[in-house]
Amino acid sequence: MADRPVTLLDKSEVLTGLFTVWDQLDELLGGLSEADWRAPSALAGWDVQAVVSHIIGTESFLQGISPPAPDIDVAALDHVRNDIGVMNECWVRHLSNQTGAAVLERFRKVTGTRRKVLEDMSLDEWNAVGVTPAGPDSYGRFMRIRVFDCWMHEQDIRVGLERPSTDEDLIGPAARLSLAEIATSMGFVVGKRAGTPDGSRVLIDLTGPLARQMRVAVNGRAQLVDDFGGQEPTTTIRVDALQFTRLAGGRPLCPRRSQDIAFEGDQDVADRIVKHLNFVI
User: Per the UniProt record, which residue ranges are transmembrane (predicted)?
Assistant: First the structure.
């Protein structure tokens, strides 16, 4: 089997997106009351503080810091589904008794350290292949996944606080990079998860401030394409781009944005794709 192609990404662009979402989180969290920190997020079993604790834990892991020992069997919790979830919950439990201010200070410290490490990283290190949540790929790809993860968690916090992103909030590098990362999984979602039949041409038409189009052609295997060679799509799914990211992440839709999902063409295929959009572990 041929080796998988390595994803080579512009270091400056990805780091701008990552640092931007960290700055946005810092600004959002800086004015919270203790009650706000304990508000349920959009994720089952986690309040706002737990979401931030998870981000702290992942960035600590990337610094080589092992997760703290939990005080309970976290694998038995209903919302923990795999080994990554176990690691996440170790940090959530560890920081659960801290004040919001202390957790924010820890967030600032770990992201400050990570900024310096990433800024100093050579291009050879940035492009080197290693383990990522998406399989073997470049460290740069891993950091784009970090942009996606942190940006999604910003939205989780905003939904929990009932402070959803405005259209202006959404126009930025973190959102664009997050959609680019999601796009890489659309062939898998359309072809394997949804079982879209051979010969299908699926257009995912995203609306709103993050408007863009994703095209997936199924010819033996499903893959992203730039166009359909002059042919019309056999299935079109039209949805607000932020809501699309919520579906892809297995999250509830944002209540203050359009809930509409419009289908054209093969309705059965469109329905299966939407039902199987969640690919996040």
Answer: none
